[in-house]
Specification:
single chain, about 350 residues, mainly alpha
């Protein structure tokens, strides 16, 4: 018995010491939200790096080159070679890419091949017009999508629900530029005095500026808001099946009160994701709409640069649009756990 006790005691002395693992791990535990944000930032940087390679490569795949555009169709080879050298396009594509991306990271976007102006100044002069259009289109899409989605869910199976579903189907099936052209035609016939084309800066005439943004904002906001409306309706119908909504209705709340007080926030989580991604898409849609309504924004600048083989402007605009997508996705990722705390805890 004594031997057994002795052996047991010796084994006990060989066991590894126990440490307070929970306390040690909790003292160095990184907040889940911080880990989540760092991962998203890393992915965003990776996306922008990949996009910079694609933007640089695609621009050089466009038929023609800036030297031919600047020298004219009847220029000789020596003149075109000299222009190519002056523009810095005579080296290998790899060396050109690293020179461009290095300057870009230092805030030097280069100069336009066509007019020689700094690309940074060209973008700075036009980006306020695009942002104005983006804000207007976002207001239209969110107001129409969220409001009609909530009401359609409340009136499920009734004529308002049928009308809303038909309108969203039409909005999702219609291209933005076609919807813009249709708006110009209808406004020209029904409201001849309304400004349908052109853009008036805000500092010149605020009322005319807002009037000139109504049709472009509707052209982008109504089709994009159709998707928000469908998601809002579906999400709200799902929320109606939860016990807390039945409890609210059973305790005397009207359907309106239960929807506004308890249902809307719970149904908003998936809608925020879609709305955020569409806000980023609005910048991309502006490329088409700005050309339809003759708005001097980033979209019109991008199209003009592509047709003129202005590599510096085109690359900067494409990378800027990609940056908007990445930032908007990051904002949505930050807002999502704030709306639904369970998501933040699971991250």
């Amino acid at each position: 018995m004594g031997a057994i006790q002795g052996s047991t005691g010796s084994v006990g002395t060989l066991l590894p010491p126990t440490f307070p693992r929970d306390a040690a791990s909790s003292s160095i535990r990184v907040p889940p939200m911080l880990t989540f944000l760092v991962k998203r930032l890393f992915r965003g940087v990776l996306v922008l790096f990949t996009l910079s390679i694609l933007a640089f490569s695609v621009v050089h795949l466009i038929p023609g080159n800036p030297a031919e555009t600047l020298a004219g169709p009847y220029s000789d080879a020596e003149t075109r070679a000299q222009i190519t050298k002056d523009l810095g396009l005579d080296g290998s594509l790899i060396s050109q890419y690293f020179r461009w991306i290095t300057n870009f990271l230092h805030g030097d976007f280069g100069n336009s091949f066509i007019n020689g102006l700094p690309v940074k100044d060209l973008i700075s002069a036009r980006i306020p017009n695009t942002l104005q259009l983006a804000v207007g289109a976002t207001l239209v899409s969110v107001l129409w999508g969220v409001t009609f989605g909530l009401v359609a869910a409340m009136k499920r199976g009734r004529p308002f629900d049928w009308f809303t579903r038909g309108a969203t189907f039409l909005g999702m099936a219609t291209p933005v530029f076609a919807f813009g052209v249709a708006l110009v035609l209808f406004a020209s016939i029904l409201f001849p005095a309304w400004p349908t084309l052109g853009f008036v800066p805000f500092n010149e005439n605020p009322s005319q500026n807002l009037a000139s943004l109504v049709l472009p904002s509707l052209a982008i906001g109504l089709p994009l808001g159709s998707t928000i409306c469908r998601f809002m309706r579906t999400s709200m119908l799902d929320v109606y099946e939860h016990d807390f909504m039945r409890t609210a209705l059973a305790t005397g709340s009207t359907r309106w009160q239960a929807t506004i007080r308890h249902g809307a926030r719970n149904a908003a989580a998936p809608v925020v994701t879609i709305a955020g991604l569409q806000m980023a898409g609005i910048i991309g849609e502006s490329i088409l709409v700005e050309n339809v309504f003759a708005i001097p924004g980033i979209g019109q600048l991008t199209i003009t640069a592509i047709t003129q083989h202005d590599y510096a402007v085109t690359q900067a605009c494409i990378l800027l649009l990609g940056l908007v997508y990445v930032v908007m996705n990051l904002i949505v990722d930050i807002l999502y756990p704030l709306i639904d705390p369970k998501v933040g805890a699971s991250k």
